[in-house]
Amino acid sequence: MYGSEQLVKAIRERIGRSADQAIRFRDYMQMCLYEPECGYYSSDRVKIGRSGDFYTSASIGCLIGETLADYIASQTAVRDAGGAATITEWGGGNGRLARQLLDRLEAAYPDFYAGITYISIEKSPGHLAMQQEELSGHRDRVRWMTEQEWLNGAPWNGAFIISNELVDAMPVHRIQALQGRLMELYVEWDEGRDRFAEKPLREAEKPVADYLAAQGAVLREGQLAEVNLDGSRWIAEAGSALGSGQIITIDYGDAAEELYAPHRMKGTFLCYRRHAASDDPYAAPGETDMTAHVNFTALIEAGERSGLRLKEYKTQKQFLVDNGILHKLQNTLNPDPFSPEAKRNRAIRQLLLSDQMSELFKVLVQEKR
Question: Which of 110, 223, 249, 334 has a Cα at 20 to 30 A from 122?
């Protein structure tokens, strides 16, 4: 079987309706990830953890959630500005990060915890069900809303917005420099190979070309690059709806000058399936996670246009250290390597020393007062 049969059929039907018998890669990726019922994130397949396709920072102990709780509790200026605080998590997956954060607030900051509302915005029905089970112990503090319901509730004051590996899962335009032109990749059905295939079909439209120009991207002949217009749009909309507060974005990526550097001839797009990486998005549509590195330069600029100022931009490792993770290391004489103390210490070391988790992951904090 080639990928999800239901998804393959839906994509082929959309391709068949198009005049070019092809659709933009961005639209193909959108369907692969979010098509109702059969897209990767819309299905009920396990995605996160050992039995899934990838790990997140929240999969490693409870430390990311605890550190975020400590950080939010320390931001008294934001909290005091809005009275009872709201914490909104966008795309919270299985709910583990939310539970870590809420557990820590309840245990260490009970007065603050008693006054907060934790709002989860989640598109995936499968993830929504997981969150409701995971957060059952905090039911009095948690609400679920759609994106539009949240936007309709603006302005949000004294608010914290959290996204953990959200922007990297947004669909991207894929662009290739060919003969002095920026060509957008399209996806067609290859009858001979009985699978999807890509081709540079049309010159990039103005919003995509303008994005690359604003980022100072000068691509070499044949170089591939990704453009995440949805990420910039999301920051702008969330920032506009924020009366006062912060947006905390945790994701892997870099500044524009690195993402579009001459040595990145193949761009940053990757797929993950059963913890193996691949650059072939057509091998198992609907059964594979697809992702591209986040352009933090573009997020910062989009935020500034909606009234957000840059507060912090640093590696996840530095954010964790600055917010006291080293104080969570525990001295133990217990020789059992599987004791809770030993497991916690290993989790700290993994978050701080792992090339993937410590340096590639960044934390961006944007603020509005």
Answer: 110
* Average pLDDT for the chain: 89
Query: Between the CA atoms of 296, 308, 172 and 217, what dihedral angle is there, to the nearest 10 degrees?
Result: -50
As beta bridge partners, residue 176 has 183, 224
pTM of the model: 0.90
Residue among 70, 38, 29 nearest 326 (CA): 70
User: What are the pLDDT digits (tens) for 175-226?
Assistant: 999 999 999 999 999 999 999 999 999 999 999 999 999 999 999 999 999 9
pLDDT for res 55: 61
Q: What angle do CA 308, 310, 312 make, to 5 degrees?
A: 135
User: What region does 180 belong to: left with phi over 0, alpha with psi -120 to 50, or beta?
Assistant: left
Distances (CA, A) of 224 to 57, 167, 175, 229, 287: 28, 19, 6, 16, 24
Where b means 16+ CB within 10 Å and e means fewer, 98-130 reads bbbbbbbbbeebeebbeebebbbbbbbebbeeb
Q: Is 112 helix (H, G, I), strand (E, B) or coil?
A: helix
Give the residue ranges of DSSP H helices in 22-164.
Answer: 25-34, 63-74, 76-82, 96-108, 110-115, 125-134, 147-152
